[in-house]
């Protein structure tokens, strides 16, 4: 985790608090439910930024005996917590919208509320865009998730602005609860997406995009001594990726030669992988007679069968625990 992430999340907390205050002022002067829904989501931004602040602090702590893989998993708790808070806010707004539809509130100073909402929404968009960009650059799930949430808040502010303009033009107060219900639906959808991402990360679900990127690097940088690779597994801990795999090498290699090949594999992947750093746990297998037909070593003095066909590596044959398998 990049130490600058702490600065960015502090920035998020400060501006989210300021934007939240602006939106509550807008609600106070107007009494509009749709503006209140926008303000309530901003409270979630503040709470989420505070939790994200702690998660980044914790994920920056070095490994210890109780956490041998580090503290990076806290990021998935962070986005899960943020998703849960968003869901609570969304359902709360939806309930209020239903109640207010039958009893619309009195509205005041909508023009002032409109400009305050525009200012808050624009600030949220700039902050969210900045955090998403930094999250991608630093491979930080927490920054990226926090930025995505703030961006969704800015998008819902567009709906709030449209609703206020329509009320000003038509005088129909029922537009207020209808618009807040639509905003609640968007908020609930965002919350479910974040919760889903959190669960997938905590359950160590395979990220196929990451696997495909690793497979591409392995195919481009493949060495003749790496006869076969299989049982590839990838787990994420913050910006650290833990990779297990089995590599088949010539059975006559010394321990020093095997270590040299593993070190070479480690350096190749870490120097070409852009999403973070990789920690390897590699199990080496000695080649067997059936390996000869797929072995590309031209100067092998113990070859028992002629070379027939190269096994093209792909996620279909690198992920399963099957030696010398072709993609199905």
Automatic annotation (TrEMBL):
Principal subcellular localization: membrane
SUPFAM superfamilies in alphabetical order? Cation efflux protein cytoplasmic domain-like, Cation efflux protein transmembrane domain-like
Q: Which GO terms describe its biological process?
A: intracellular zinc ion homeostasis
- Please give the superkingdom of this protein's source: Bacteria
Q: Name one GO cellular component term.
A: plasma membrane
**UniProt domain Cation efflux protein transmembrane: residue ranges:** 10-203
Q: How does it sit in the membrane?
A: Multi-pass membrane protein
GO terms, molecular function: cadmium ion transmembrane transporter activity; ferrous iron transmembrane transporter activity; zinc efflux antiporter activity
**Annotated keywords:** Membrane, Transmembrane, Transmembrane helix, Transport
Q: Which Gene3D superfamilies match?
A: Cation efflux protein transmembrane domain, Cation efflux protein, cytoplasmic domain
Give its localization.
Membrane
Cation efflux protein cytoplasmic domain: residues covered: 210-287
Bilayer-crossing residues are 12-36, 42-58, 79-102, 114-132, 153-172, 178-195
PANTHER family per UniProt: MITOCHONDRIAL METAL TRANSPORTER 1-RELATED
Q: Its family?
A: Belongs to the cation diffusion facilitator (CDF) transporter (TC 2.A.4) family.
Q: What is this protein called?
A: Cation transporter
Record the organism: Lacibacter sediminis
């Amino acid at each position: 985790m990049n130490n600058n992430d702490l600065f960015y999340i502090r920035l998020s907390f400060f501006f989210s608090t300021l934007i939240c205050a602006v939106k509550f002022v807008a609600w106070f002067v107007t009494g509009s439910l749709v503006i209140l829904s926008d303000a309530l989501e901003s409270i979630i931004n503040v709470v989420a930024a505070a939790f994200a602040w702690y998660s980044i602090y914790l994920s920056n702590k070095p490994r210890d005996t109780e956490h041998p893989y580090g503290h990076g998993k806290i990021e998935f708790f962070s986005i899960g917590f943020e998703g849960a808070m968003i869901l609570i806010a969304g359902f709360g707004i939806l309930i209020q919208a239903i109640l207010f539809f039958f009893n619309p509130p009195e509205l005041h100073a909508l023009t002032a509320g409109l400009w305050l909402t525009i200012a808050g929404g624009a600030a949220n968009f700039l902050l969210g865009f900045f955090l998403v960009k930094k999250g991608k650059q630093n491979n930080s799930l927490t920054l990226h998730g926090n930025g995505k949430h703030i961006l969704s808040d800015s998008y819902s502010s567009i709906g709030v602005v449209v609703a206020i303009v329509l009320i000003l033009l038509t005088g129909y107060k029922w537009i207020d609860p209808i618009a807040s219900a639509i905003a609640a639906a968007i908020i609930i959808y965002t919350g479910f997406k974040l919760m889903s991402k959190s669960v997938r990360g905590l359950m160590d679900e395979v990220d196929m995009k990451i696997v495909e990127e690793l497979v591409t690097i392995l195919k481009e940088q493949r060495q003749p001594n790496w006869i076969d690779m299989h049982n590839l597994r990838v787990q994420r801990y913050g910006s650290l990726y833990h990779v297990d795999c089995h590599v088949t090498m010539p059975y006559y290699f010394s321990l020093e030669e095997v270590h040299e090949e593993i070190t070479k594999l480690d350096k190749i992947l870490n120097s070409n992988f852009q999403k973070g750093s990789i920690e390897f746990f590699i199990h080496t297998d000695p080649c067997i007679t059936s390996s000869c037909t797929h072995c590309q070593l031209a100067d092998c003095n113990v070859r028992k069968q002629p070379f027939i066909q190269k096994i093209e590596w792909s996620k279909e044959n690198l992920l399963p625990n099957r030696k010398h398998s072709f993609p199905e």
